[in-house]
Amino acid sequence: xxxxxPRQVGPPPARPRxxxxxxxxxxxxxxPTIVVASSVLWLAAGAxxxxxxxxxxxxxxxxxxxxxxxxxRDFPAEQPATRDRAVALTSAxxxxxxxxxxxxxxAGLRLREGRGAVRYLLVLLLVAAVVEIVLAVGVVDPVARxxxxxxxxxxxxxxxLMYLPDANRWFASxxx
Length: 176
Fold this sequence. Notes:
Elements (H helix, E strand, L loop, with lengths): L32 H26 L1 H15 L5 H16 L1 H17 L4 H19 L5 H20 L3 H9 L3
Keywords: Membrane, Transmembrane, Transmembrane helix
């Protein structure tokens, strides 16, 4: 027969204890104040862009008349149909800047949640806002122009804040 080991008398051996720790990359680090400030500034920039688009939309006929004046003055040799298309396209781009503002608001909220990839989108939206300002010079009324300029200034400061070292560390520590 087989040799069986003698049975152990007494309590069973103690269970091994494991301490589970989260990986350092999975630990959520406290959100830096510069990320919060950047997010708030992006929200302000988007709101100002949307307000400027609303002001332009409320006085759309005056906007089209101002654009027509500039197009007729600068391009007198063009066909009237071409000038009409240029006026319509420029007016549409200026008013559609409100969509850029709303996109900045949405992306600013995502930034606050810790989505680091949205920083690139926000920089592209800032470039689009600057292009809108260039188109608006001499065409848009002063209130809309001021809102566009303040929005671009808020966006520029927010863009700098979201790339500072503390923000970079925080975005690097976050995992989707």
